[in-house]
Structures are given as C-alpha cells and as structure tokens.
Amino acid sequence: MSLLPLDDAPGRLPAAVPLPSPIRFGAPRLLRGALVLLPLLLIGVWAVLDWRTVYDGTARLGAADPWWLLVALLFTCLGWPAAACIRQGALPERLPVGLLVASQFAAGAANHVLPAGFGAHAVTLRFLQGRGIPLARATASLALYSAVRPIAKTLVLLAFLAAFPGLLPIGDLLPDERTSLVVAGVATLALTGTALLVTTVRPLRRPLLDALRCALTDVRLLHTRPARILALWGGAVAAPLLQASVIFAVGVAVGVSLSWVQVTFAFLAASTAVGAVPAPGGIGPVDAAVVFAMVTLGAPMDLSAAAVIGYRVLTVWLPLLPGALVLSALVQRKAL
C-alpha cells in the first residue's frame, strides 16, 4: 500500500501529453549536398583557370613512349599507399586499410585545390574523427605526419649527396645569399607569428597544448612498435622517391637522358628548397625549381619542361576528377 493517497484521488491522472515531433530542417542535408558538389565545382573552376597546363601536357604526352608512361602511372598509383602508410604509422590505433587508402586518394584532390597541404589535412582530420579518434590525437598525428615527411626527404637528400659526391653539382643548385636570407626571414616570421598566436589567443592555447602533449606521448609509444616505425619512416622515405620516379619515367618517355639518380636528386633538391611555398600542391614554384635543377644537370630546357608537365598531368590532372568523386562519395557515406 502506497503511503501517498493517490488511490483516493477523484479521478485518473491525465496521461502524459505527447510532445510534438521535432521539426527536421533541411539545412544539414543541403549542407551535405553542397559538400558533395563542392570538390567538383572547385576542380572545374581550377581547370578553366589553368587550361594551358592541361593542353601543353596533353600535347607533349601525345608523342611520348606509352610504355614508360605506364611505368610512370604505376609509380603514381604507389604514392597513395605510401601516404596511407605514413598516416597509419602516425597513429597507435589501427585504421581500415581500404578506407584509409581511399581517404588519401580523395585527400590528393583536396590538396591540389588548397595551398600548403590544408586540403589533405582537412580531409584526413575528418576521416580520423569519423573513425572515433579524439581531436587531440588526430591533430597530433597530422603534426607528426607533417614533421616526418620533410625530415625523411632531407635524410634521403643527404644520403644521395654522400653516395654520389662527384655526380651531382651541388654548388650550382645552392641558393644565393639573397634567397637564403628571404627563406630565413619567412621561416622566422612564421615561427614568431605562431608563438604570438598561441600565447595571445587563449582559446587556441588549450587545444594546441593538448595536441602537443598527445603528440609527445604518441611519438614515444609509436617508436616502441616496429610495425609503426616501418610504416611511418618507410612510407616517408618511399614517398619522395616515388614522386621522383614518376618524373624520371616521364622524362625517359619524352627523351630526357638524365639518370634516375640525377632526376631524383633534382626533385629532392628543388622540392626541399621551395616546397614550403604555399601554393596548391606545390604547383608553380616546385615545377620551376625542378626544371631548373634538371637543366643544371644537363637536360634540355624543352624536354625538362615536358617531363615536369607530364608529371603534373599524371599526378594531378589525371587523378583529380576520380579523387573528387571519391571525396564526394566518402562525404555522402558519412566517412568524412
């Protein structure tokens, strides 16, 4: 028997009034639809603005050796698994291989639209968060990825210099004093601006410090696992070698007589020198620097330009539309 006199109440309690069903607005669906179509729209705009590159590259490749172009295409395709290996090596958690490679293929399309790798990092960050990775750990993995790639490229470049001291004209490729001062000034301003931003903007301080602590913890943890070490550093070493191999194969297809060592050194030196310039996918500054390096090593100007144009066609324009479609599909499947 209840102690409360509910049984003697003059009538039944009124049933719970049903709440009205929540109104579903179409904004999220419209936003997702816009995100699906946005990569294709950006690709179309960029293709219209840079149509000369497509035309020149297609004309040059039309007379090239098709078998060597197939070899170059093979090296291009191997670049996405290499990037996926670096991404996996930068995280303790295991990621699904198929979706990881697909996300890197899609990230390549976004990376060639936005400067300084922002597009690829944004796609990867959304992918990692979709797999349940906390924001601090996902950000730390992006920072580790961004740090390992230039370190590995510099180590490979130093290894080439040590292994082939008489084959490579180092002095002709070194930047002059004015260029060195400009690079040093830009690097100093970037570091100073980052430090001021972190110290003055309080909402950024906590997330960045959390990401830094997480990064240091993950670096120690990852380097106790041989599989992660191999994926992280092996992928970072393989990535620039595969890119240089694409240029070499396209160069052979159009008639460049430089060896693989020379072409690889030209790419490593050029991309290391001007790779920090915030251009979409490095297009522009890196291209000019690679052509200059190949000409310095003895290749004709027109053939060097044709090799670099073919490299861009294979690594940028050919996978750009499929990459944008994969990016849209991943957004539609809510994997991003």
Head-to-tail CA distance between termini: 57 Å
Strand content: under 5%
Q: Structural class of the secondary structure composition? A: mainly alpha
Major β-sheet annotation? none
Question: Strand-and-helix sequence, N→C?
Answer: HHHHHHHHHHHHH
For the residues shown, what is the average pLDDT? 76
Strand tally: 0
Radius of gyration: 26 Å
Residues in helix, %: over 70%
Form type = globular
Uncertain parts: 1-27
Number of domains: 1
> Helical segment tally?
13
Structure description:
With 336 residues, the protein is mainly alpha-helical. It has one domain. Helix content is 75%, strand content 0%. Helix 3 packs antiparallel against helix 10 and helix 4 packs antiparallel against helix 5. The longest helix is centred in the last third of the chain and has 32 residues.
Short description:
The chain contains 13 helices and no strands. The protein is mainly alpha-helical. It has one domain (46-332).
Please describe the topology of this protein.
Blueprint: H1 27-49, H2 51-62, H3 66-89, H4 97-111, H5 118-130, H6 135-163, H7 170-173, H8 177-200, H9 202-222, H10 226-254, H11 260-274, H12 285-296, H13 301-332
Helix pairs in contact: 1-13, 2-13, 3-4, 3-10, 4-5, 4-13, 5-6, 6-9, 6-10, 6-11, 8-9, 10-11, 10-13, 11-12, 12-13
Keyword list:
336 residues, mainly alpha, single chain
